[in-house]
């Protein structure tokens, strides 16, 4: 999916200035495997992620993104991590500050496939096969592994 219309509308007003957005990451488990996708834009392997639409519940956004990007139906089970992603500056100069809400999710149905073009490959992988996953995504997965741990927060001093 392309950049959401509400972001494009905001960009018309603020140009490339920093834009605070809420994002979600869905760490989806099926048996002892985790759903990972290879991003079309930068080739990195990571859990499914996306932007929360205005008025949308974050857990619903995580579920929606899994269906849109990977063609799987999931259930959001718990919040695993809340953190601020370091500012991202895109090639066109747009700056974004994402507050990322990471959800532990369980697979309900569907065979993973690149559904909307944001991912070039997607599937369930053994936790030991995550050699191409960046450390920040490994941390998200590690925090989501436990089924009943409380969410982790940075800061809060």
UniProtKB/TrEMBL annotation:
Keywords: Hydrolase
Keyword Hydrolase assigned: yes
Nudix hydrolase domain segment(s): 19-147
Matches recorded under SUPFAM superfamilies: Nudix
Keyword Transferase: no
Cofactor: Mg(2+)
Listed PANTHER family: ADP-RIBOSE PYROPHOSPHATASE YJHB-RELATED (PTHR43046:SF16), GDP-MANNOSE MANNOSYL HYDROLASE (PTHR43046)
Protein name, per record: 8-oxo-dGTP pyrophosphatase MutT (NUDIX family)
Organism: Microbacterium paludicola
